[in-house]
Amino acid sequence: MLDAPAPGRERQSQPTRFPRAVATGTPHDPRHGDVDICFEPAGFSRGYDDLRPQATVQAIAGTTIALPIASLGDVEHSKRTADRAKDRAYF
């Protein structure tokens, strides 16, 4: 059975939660563009809750996986606020 817990493990009542991330600009796979994983977006006091209204859900190329992707405006605001060398190079 696919949803049975592994031997010696109890079924979890809640799904495992991982930190949310946003795709933005560190090299990942040049065939599909750059991906930057960000655990806490700079410039947004409520973190990902502030990004949600402008995000769009997009399918990942060649898969059935769909993820919320931050808007370009929000990504650029975060990059300007973080002001790292790689963010300045982006502009």
Describe the structure.
With 91 residues, the protein is of the alpha+beta class. The chain has one domain (20-91). Helix content is 23%, strand content 9%. The protein has 3 helices and 2 strands, in the order H-E-E-H-H. It has helices at 48-51, 72-82, 85-90; strands at residues 56-59, 66-69. It has a two-stranded antiparallel ribbon with strand order 1-2. Strand 1 (56-59) and strand 2 (66-69) form a beta hairpin. The radius of gyration is 17 Å and the shape is globular.
Q: What descriptors fit this protein?
A:
single chain, 91 residues, alpha+beta, 2 strands
Brief sketch in words of this structure:
The chain is globular and about 35 Å long. The protein has 3 helices and 2 strands; from the N terminus they run αββαα. About 20% of the residues have low confidence.
SSE diagram, text form:
Layout: H1 48-51, E1 56-59, E2 66-69, H2 72-82, H3 85-90
Antiparallel strand pairs: 1-2
